[in-house]
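Supplementary Methods, section 5.1.

A reviewer requested that the exact input to the structure prediction be made available. We therefore reproduce it here, unchanged from the version used in the analyses.
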Amino acid sequence: MSRKLLLVVLLLCADIALAQQTADEPKGKAIINVFGNFHTGFGAENDVRGFSMDRSYFGYQYTLENGLSLKAVMDVGRSSDVDDLHRIAYIKNAQISWRRDRLTLNGGLISTTSFKVQEDFWGFRFMKMVLQDYYKFASSADLGLSVAYKFADWVSADAIVVNGNGYKRLQVNDGLLYGLGVTFKPVQGLTLRLYGSLNEGEEDGDKSTGVYALFAGYKHEKFSLGAEWNMMQNTSNVADADLTGVSLYTTVKLGGRVDAFARYDNLWSKDDWNIAKDESTYMAGVEVRPCKYVKIAPNFRYHDLKASGVKDKCYLYLSCFFGF
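The structure derived from this sequence is encoded token-by-token as follows.
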């Protein structure tokens, strides 16, 4: 065999092998997120301390042809239904998505749209949920359908129809949740969002629950600022049981893999019907990222409780995250 012919054969073999390797490459990725912490209280909470595994997510996302993708995620975390030492596993996501140009459709057990923009902007979910999630204004996932459309680079809209009970509770009665949101990005770094939803009552005589939210956030290469206002009318389908909450947060890049952050939340209820749980909270700390998959964040938290005769709460946390 001549050298030229041998060279052609080798090039053809290499090309076939490369094509086969590319075809066999997986189009999916594993999802692993683990949140934990060590915390200790001060003053009235002096006896509260220990290690905690708050939540873990395990799943897989796979991208198909023609804009289709599949996502399945298991959520392992605490539940008020069992002792705190135990953990319960839920299916959080089991969804199929389709993207075509500016249009996105999602169906199944999907991520909701109520506070997703705020959560992504805040960026420290492993330490503390955003206000709507923390105080149960809405659930992060539910069974139903959603659609989003990007009209231009600076404006998009989304709509969602789901059961309204979240992913931890099976829908057994009538009633759906309808939500609509609009997101504006008028200039680089600035995000504005308006959102509203209506969750129908399940039983005769139940009042529909409404949730409304306004958000404004600005991100610079050195810092970020976010502010949100949230209101829930007829909480738990009870007439005039209204809650209002505001949240302010900021992040400052200190250089390298270190960021500083601070956050202030304020929750209050109409006519003090929820006074036992109404509070203002203050949080500050730093996040250190020793590698791509690990985050460590010492942080301080202070809870200013609004009920009379109740002592405020103060904690020091060492929050940790690993995953991809």
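The chain has one domain: 37-323. These observations are discussed further in the main text.
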